[in-house]
Amino acid sequence: MVYIEPLSPRVELYDKDKSQVSVKVTIPGFSSFSLSDATVTPNGKLIVAGCAHADIGGKIHCFIGIAAHDGRVSPMVDTDRFAPMNISTCDDSTVWALGWLRAPPDFDRESDEPYNTLRLYRLGDGKIVDSIFPRQSFPPHSALFVGPPEVTMQCRDTKLGIYLGGTDEWIEYSPANRQPIHWKLPKQTHHFPQYDSKGEMLHFPVHVTFITGLAMLDSGDVYASFVHQARDGSARATTGLFRLEKSGCEAKWVPVSGSNGTYGDQGRFKELTGTDGKNLVYSRHGEYHWLFSPPPR
Prior knowledge:
Elements: E1 2-5, E2 10-15, E3 18-24, E4 32-40, E5 46-53, E6 60-67, E7 73-80, E8 82-88, E9 94-101, E10 116-122, E11 128-134, E12 151-156, E13 159-164, E14 169-173, E15 181-184, E16 207-216, E17 222-230, E18 238-247, E19 250-255, E20 261-262, E21 269-275, E22 280-284, E23 291-293
Antiparallel strand pairs: 1-2, 2-3, 4-5, 5-6, 6-7, 8-9, 9-10, 10-11, 12-13, 13-14, 14-15, 16-17, 17-18, 18-19, 18-20, 21-22, 22-23
């Protein structure tokens, strides 16, 4: 389990509820920077991603790199203006990055120029070895680059799975066939602003369903947890675990028997927090530890 400390460039690694490593990331020449995501390679190396302001000149550099236990990042890939927001790795030598291109001169907004949003970097020399998903193929107001679980990217074997809350899609991609497969999901409510076809911001409905966690297993099966709320207080919130059932170009979330119940009830399922590849990792209300179990059918 990987936890990024939001107030400092620190990453906490956990294994079976125990803190294994606490890494304070340091990059010489960059005292001011933030981490956007972190992941672990199959052999246990920590990969971090983010953007930083140079101490001299203040120029922004975005990066992906392997962080040692003492926090030093090496090797480090300078992704220049490309800000990697979500990362995942299938091996120990390359890393996938989903992100956006910063526009000069202040680099605080997205560039209008064409670019691909998903890139595969080789850690050894920083080369881009694959690049897909043109930015113009997504709606201009879609929130592609928020954090998990609204955008979740996981690699299993050689297959990359991506959940995009901004477009309510599940996407799978393998470099071997270079043809991404898209499944449209039932529309959900998300915590980021949503817009209609004219670019007008939509109001939140009274009854909402938010995703709280998502995991793809080694088998390729996908599970997610959702919480259902009545924002006017007319009913108590509920939560549950769901399995993704794919059919054609669409997919649906099928509830897992026994997992659905009232939010907050002692001992009830709370949310999906991850996977070790074969088992689901989840939490229950009132219990301050993680639970591991084989995926239910």
